[in-house]
Amino acid sequence: MTAQPNTERPRFGVFATVGGVEYPANSYPKDGRVTLVVRRPENPDPALFGWTAEYDAWTATLPSSECERLVEVTSLAEHLGHTCQVVSITEDGTVGLYYVGEEKAAVVRAGFVQVEGGTWAKTVNLYDIYRYRERHTDLLFDEWKTKAPPGSPSAR
After folding, report:
1. Does 146 map to a domain?
2. Does residue 129 sit within a domain?
3. Mean pLDDT per 10-residue section of the chain, whose length is 156 residues
4. Which of 70, 115, 124, 145 pairs as cysteine with 139 (C-beta 3.0–4.6 A)?
5. What is the pTM assigned to this prediction?
């Protein structure tokens, strides 16, 4: 079976790489285990996944140590000089943003509105953002660091 690349943008959430293929996970690892959740008609890997009616999806729960990579992905962009989280991009080029900076007075002047306590949002055109990127936070780093051989640079 050929792996299907994840083409959804913006990407956010937890993703695990298993057997060279990246899959979405339903949450952070818990008790050293992670659950992968794939919502598509065909089973992505019958040796790994089984159908779970509760999720209405193919799922696989495995030790996080079996993941080649486990990351939290956040999509970011700049808008009017402010760093923002990109929460949606529609087919017509409309982009949903959350402000992630500290300067609340400036964000109000930039047209963001408070949608709930501490969350400032704005909808803009795709051409009004720049430096679109994904931030990947390695969720296995601490585990790998503790397994590093004594005296190696990563063990310090």
Report:
1. no
2. yes
3. 55 93 91 93 95 94 94 95 95 95 86 92 96 93 69 57
4. 70
5. 0.76
